[in-house]
Design goal:
Strand order of the largest sheet: 1-8-7-5-4
Order of helices and strands: HEEEEEEEE
Helix content: under 10%
Number of domains: 1
Radius of gyration: 15 Å
Largest sheet: 5 strands, mixed
Amino acid sequence: MLALLTGCYAKQFKDVSKVGLSPHVVGMKTTDTTITFHVLQDQSVWLADIKPKIIENKVYLSPLYISSPVSVTNFTLDFSDPRYPKDWKQRLYWIEEDSITSPLNPFLKRVQTIGRRRIEL
């Protein structure tokens, strides 16, 4: 639902240090064009996928959780596609929070706030 409502919203970013939506990463491995995350699956919500998004020439990783058990613990993302910046390793963030102002209040400025945490490689 949030994704449907954010199309006409101005984006603002805030840097956060606290883990929110990102998975429990216990290891990472990178190449020139890929990154592999080794995650520890939680027993209440399960990481099913990690979706990269390009916003303002930075790469934001958005985790997708489901309630059914998942046995996958390694997630590899490929950034060889030309739409990704060549220096993607310096522009990589987890989306830790994502919220919008109420679409029902016509007096509020429509803003999507993304809490981001930089991924240090």
